[in-house]
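Justification of computing resources. Each target in the renewal requires a structure prediction run like the one illustrated here; the chain below, 278 residues long, is used simply to show the kind of job we budget for.
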Amino acid sequence: MSDTVLDVQNLRITFPSHRGPVDVVRGVSFSLGRERLGIVGESGSGKSLTGRAIMGLVPRPGQVRADRIAFMGQDFSTMRGRDLRKIRGKRISMVLQDPKFSLNPVMKIGHQIEESYRLHVGGDRRQAERETLAALEAVKIRNPETVYHLYPHQLSGGMGQRVMIAMMLIPKPDLLIADEPTSALDVTVQLQVLAILEDLVRERGMSLIFISHDLQLVAAFCDRVLIMYAGKVVESCRASELDKVQHPYARGLLASVPRLGDDRPELPTLQRDASWAQ
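Resulting structure tokens:
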């Protein structure tokens, strides 16, 4: 049996514009095993849309095409309706970057997580409540019984992100896509959330796609890295070898990162070349 969890080949995403169709993701291909894969790049590089395309969540009028998007050997790029719902949300989950826009503001936290459990797993209300409390405890939330009865506006940013992780993980998916899950959090809370993700990935044997613009964060947290620019992958490497990348864009990103003890009078700016986008 293959160890490949996800196989993406020649993924393209196109949006219409007044000048004609624009390819915002151009020929992205990669395979994912039981590992943590980081996808990095600046805003507009196509990294978040790549994650959404895997989930079938690219908004209209965007058009997604691919030679193959296969999960556990099953090509679901052309699936619709019930067949797609059996995979999306249950076997593949996605955590977005800001819980304020993902949680229902008029539903209690516990009821939202229960809804996810009953939709994807089944069971009665009492079983869903037990699993919800266990999920909140798994993401290191103290007093889960109290948080269960709170509304989203009563949570801090870090607490809200933990709730989102609990909600996405309660069906016990094989693949978790985390789209900049720590970008809205302060550094201390970032580390706490990453530690939770790392523990859960290790304990459950999940695969993880971690989308971020933070090179240092990805290098420290992931096993492998894809670097995107202008909608395509310009380089891939082991995370431990990120400092050895060769593409000028990747080298420029690394050079612009401030470091403790850096005696440079100013950080260098990225000198772009039109050929990078070809």
